[in-house]
Amino acid sequence: MSSSDRGKALIKSYLDAVGSLAVDDIAPLFHVDGRLDIPYAPDGIPRTIEGQVAIDDFYQALPQMATPLNFSDYRIWALEEDGEYVAEYRSDSSFKATGAAYRNNYVARVTVRDDKIVRFAEYFDPIPLVEALGGTVTPAPMAAGPVADAGPSDRGAIEDVLNKYAIAYDENDMTTMADCFTQDAVMSLRVQDGDLVGPFEGRDAIVKLMRDALASQTDQRRHIVTNAVIRSADAAAVSVESYLTLISVDGAKLTVLSTARYEDRLVHDGGAWRFSKRHVQLDLPY
User: Fold this and answer.
1) Four-way CATH pick for 154-282: 3.30.360.10, 3.10.450.50, 3.40.50.720, 3.20.20.380
2) Shortest CA distance to 172 belongs to which of 217, 230, 224?
3) pTM recorded for the entire structure
């Protein structure tokens, strides 16, 4: 069996063990200094668990909280970099304290070395988890006022801007790209906890950044935007967070390059919603 296939089998063993709550089988799959990251875990659940012993303690408590997670529909890809993988899967469970059903979809980035998991980073929509635990999520009030060519609601119009930006980049449509931003918009980027890239100030500077990035590519990119949540709103502006899954298509090969969180502020400008500020927080370099 190749090292790539062994890595995929290791990840499947982990998902099988967690999904069936075979908790004694989970920690041994990790390196002694392994790390479990759950960046979007709600308050009360640790977002980083380091070391085989701490990972074992975390999972030993899970059967008291939940029924088996019943992970299914596994899809596991080996990336170009040796020992790096991406997995997708879904759960179907319930929480004992509330009796509420819990179903979710997941994406994980996994690092494997010497047939052990060094890092398992799991990403999911936290809202179903909060609700299954008995919490509530109250949407922010929508901004008031007319929206030109926006569809049935402000939320739809705002999500249109998120998606329009993604498609404009992927299709090298700089006219549409420019229309997504106000004249004085600001954009910045950061990879993990590295240095801030930017800010790029003004619509023209942002479009130049995108045009230069496209010129350096030889592949086809697909920006998949999901999990948009409006964090705050007033009559003229909204703050929105969403997730990005960045995919590269090169010939017959498809690769997940990175995931990210968009942190946006949109304003009502000239009869339409446009970005006045956009920050891209990348989970991994690519």
Assistant:
1) 3.10.450.50
2) 217
3) 0.54
Where exactly are the structural domains of the chain? Answer: 3-132, 154-282
Query: Is beta strand 181-191 parallel, antiparallel or unpaired with respect to 272-282?
Result: parallel
Decide if 206 contacts 169 (C-beta within 8 A): no
Q: How many residues does the chain have?
A: 286
Does the domain at residues 3-132 carry the CATH identifier 3.10.450.50?
A: yes
Give percent above pLDDT 90 in the chain.
57
Q: Is 285 exposed, middle or buried (0-12, 13-18, 19+ CB in 10 A)?
A: exposed
> How many Cβ atoms are within 10 Å of 5's Cβ, its own excluded?
10
Structure tokens at 221: 């990119």
Q: Which of 32, 218, 222 is nearest to 114 (CA)?
A: 32
